[in-house]
Amino acid sequence: MTVTEPAAQPQEGAQPQREGRIVRPYGDTTGDGMVQMSFTLPLPHDKVAEGAAAQLANKMGMDPALVVHAKPMGDGYTFFVVYGRVHHLVDTSTVEVVERDYPLLTPKEVNLVIRERLRRRLVVVGGCIGTDAHTVGIDAILNIKGFAGEKGLEYYREVKVVNLGAQVSVPDLVERAQAEGADAVLVSQVVTQRDAHLLNTREMSAAFREAYPAERRPLLVVGGPRFDETMAGELGVDRVFSRGTTPGEVASYLVHRMAARHAAAS
Ligand code: B12
Q: I want to staple 152 with a disulfide (CB 3.0 to 4.6 A). Which of 121, 138, 143, 175 is the partner?
């Protein structure tokens, strides 16, 4: 998909122009429509299971569908990789994505905006909620060591980070956010089994709405590899970040929103 990069200093609400293209997948030769997909069936590995995998792929629009890998996964389960042709086209001009609508700032610029606008440190409280113990993602954003060559928010002199770690209950998160005077609450959800990430996020956002008057509620930001970034409204949060997010993007977003709130209040 070809998406033009946003300008360095986009206007508030401005939508970058997107170049539209009609594309189909590429396997052996350009535009041949070849794709590969993997899944597990609750069947022991035998010829019938392989036939069932091919039939499923056929029903999903893959024709021909070739089972290229099959591996037993414990008793009564088989993992498959199927390779084949799909005939669908994608028009990139109809693709909906959340574009970055704020400028990317350096840590120095972020610190400066906070100093000038807020005149105190920006307080960020973060953690993994529910039973989720996958802290590597939230640590990548918050800890000084950071991610992808960027330092985490702890590195920013004007940001106070309170990292609560794993398995934080929603009431504890709300209580700590209130005690710290949080400007933003950053929540990570990595486990998506039975939609736990969606249920936990909705519970969290509802609890913050209950605990705070609307104008004093901290910014609610949720992140994790399997979130759909277009779901912020549905989940009751201000922003959703997904795979590959860097600390600089988050810091830039926070000061952008903080500056907008500050301007609206004065
Ligand atoms: C490391 C790991 C573990 C470690 C976690 C250690 C730790 N301290 O975090 C341990 C061994 C404890 C573990 C346990 C389990 N795990 Co595990 N784990 C992983 C693994 C291999 C890597 C995750 C990771 O660290 N990624 C690296 C980070 C940097 O990436 P990230 O989380 O996506 O974060 C980035 C973005 O998403 C974003 N982001 C994330 N959070 C946030 C938050 C905010 C606010 C923002 C802005 C951005 C942001 O920014 C980050 C940087 O770009 C994944 C598989 C995989 N390859 O992804 C499985 C995986 C996540 N685990 C899985 C499972 C099932 C489990 C267990 C249930 C296994 C079991 N049966 O016991 C337990 C659950 C424990 C629990 N209570 O949560 C499944 C989840 C499946 C699902 N759909 O839910 C996965 C996908 C493996 C799999 N394929 O089955 N796991």
A: 143
Q: H or E segment at 239?
A: strand 239-241
Distant-in-sequence, close-in-space partners of 215: CB < 8 Å, separation ≥ 6: 265
Q: In this structure, are residues 177 and 218 in contact, taking their beta carbons and an 8 Å threshold?
A: yes
Contact 126, 36 (CB under 8 A): no
Check whether residue 111 and residue 62 sit in a common domain. no
Task: Identify the band that residue 118 occupies on the pLDDT scale cut at 50, 70 and 90.
Answer: very high
pLDDT tens for each residue of 197-254 = 999 999 999 999 999 999 999 999 999 999 999 999 999 999 999 999 999 999 999 9
Cα–Cα distance, 48 to 43 (Å, whole number): 9
Kindly state whether residue 80 falls inside one of the protein's structural domains.
yes
DSSP structure string for 152-207: -GGG-TTEEEEE--SSB-HHHHHHHHHHHT-SEEEEE----GGGHHHHHHHHHHHH
Choosing from 33, 67, 93, the residue where a domain stops is 93
- CA-CA distance, 200 to 197, in Å (whole number)? 5
Q: Pick from 190, 193, 250, 254 the residue to mutate for probing ligand 1's pocket: most ligand atoms within 8 Å of its CB.
A: 190
> Any idea what the CATH number is for the domain that residue 21 is in?
3.30.30.60
Q: Which residue out of 47, 59, 145, 151 is catalytically annotated?
A: 145
